[in-house]
Amino acid sequence: MAIPHARPAVKRFLANYGMVFILVLLAGYYSWATWKEQYPGGREAADQVAAAVCNELAPGARVLVVAHQGVEAKAFADAATAALRDRGMDVAGVVLGDPHDLRTDLERRAARPGKPAAIAATREAAEWRLMQTLPERFPSLATVRIVSPASYWWPDFLKRSNLAAIADRIVVIAVIAIGMTMVIITGGIDLSVGSLIALSAVVSTLLIREVAGAKDATASGMVLCCLAAVLACGAMGAFSGLMVTAFSIPPFIGTLAMMLIASGTAFILAGGQSIYKVPAAIDWLGRGSSLGGIPNTVLLMVALYAGAHILMTRTVLGRYIYAVGGNVEAARLSGVPVRRVILFVYAVCGLLAGVGGVVQASQLQSGAPTYGLMYELYVIAAVVVGGTSLAGGQGRILGTLAGAFIIAVIQNGMNLTGVESYTQKVILGAVILGAVLLDMLKKRRST
To answer: Is 186 helix (H, G, I), strand (E, B) or coil?
Structure first.
């Protein structure tokens, strides 16, 4: 008797948290699929090796630091040298290069007194054949201890750098998906958002370079230039809404035309070229971090989603948006200002596409008319996978956020597991089709 009563609760749970549950399952699967032996690098590896050396040797012991070539290896060498000296060790020298460089250094040290008691090495350097056959090649250094970072097991998917890459990739799509969700809930569609990204990036960087100044631009000047680009995109979104409401142009056709107009305008303004020579400080939004190291883009995304969630669930305007999508004629007869609501959602969609363009320009420190290519499809996919019905009237802002992350996690997971790019397209297409089919099946059951 308890099972029938439990079914409505299960349905409510799946309706409210189904997308989050799927996201957790995907994260769990790709964590399992990418579970492998890991080796720390850079400063983390240096701290581990320095601690191991100090546990094995007395203070004042001579230590040689060895690292392979590369930026991370140099970071290891610098951090290990500083950590060993802080712990009272005598750093005999640093070899940063290849096995030939190490052999030359060891030949010199083997021929004179004051030999090192240990070699602090990166994992790559410790695996050199020269290091593994050190006692045979240099008998006088047979007692030298080779210390390298210890391995551990951890999924590639859950690495901090990979999670940051997922967040970095999804921010622009997720931000624009807020506006697209509102548009689709009203029963419309906006195909122009990808081109508006390019237009916003071009306008913002062009204004910063030509008006604010490429070298002496102030923070307020750059903010005003970016705001102008966002408002320009908002105006184009509002124009699309005007075409839909005042002239009854189908949203697909009206926004398709706006897509071409925005793309062409971006190419004209940029002269078909990318816009560089912008201040380095432009990357504050796209690459900077605040509040305990959290990227500014993530903070922006969270703030926008919180505001949109409140708008759609706690305000009269939010109820109007759902009413228009549910039954436009019933909404009109109930006193809902249908035209103003539709105009509003298209304007918001344009504004958020402009914000996405500014974020992308900040991330790449440039503006180009080719930015945003195919983004309209990824945005629509995120909205649909997040549970918003293409027929209108149904959808959740937070569901869209989950849908955006589902798309990003699937793409990232396929890259980590070595799935070919053309196979990825097939899988993503099947995911989107499956989401639409589930929506249609739910509608048939409810009728």
So the answer is: coil
Please tell me whether residue 289 adopts helix, strand or coil conformation: strand
pLDDT tens per residue, range 51-72: 999 888 888 899 999 998 888 8
CA distances from 152 to 32, 37, 38, 45, 156 (A): 15, 6, 5, 12, 12
Round to whole Å and give the CA distance between 86 and 349: 55
Exposed / middle / buried, residue 74 (Cβ in 10 Å: 0-12, 13-18, 19+): middle
Q: Residue 210 corresponds to which amino acid?
A: E
Bridge partner list, 289 = 295
Least confident of 9-13, 107-111, 131-135, 347-351: 9-13
pTM tops 0.90: no
Amino acid at the residue 151: S
For residue 112, give every residue at least 6 positions away whose Cβ sits within 8 Å of its Cβ, in sequence order, or none. Answer: none
Which one, of 341, 354, 349, 330, lies nearest residue 400 by Cα? 349
Indicate the angle between helix axes 375-385 and 397-416, nearest 10 degrees: 110
> Is 63 within 8 Å of 117 (Cβ atoms)?
yes
Cα(20)–Cα(30) distance, rounded to whole angstroms? 15
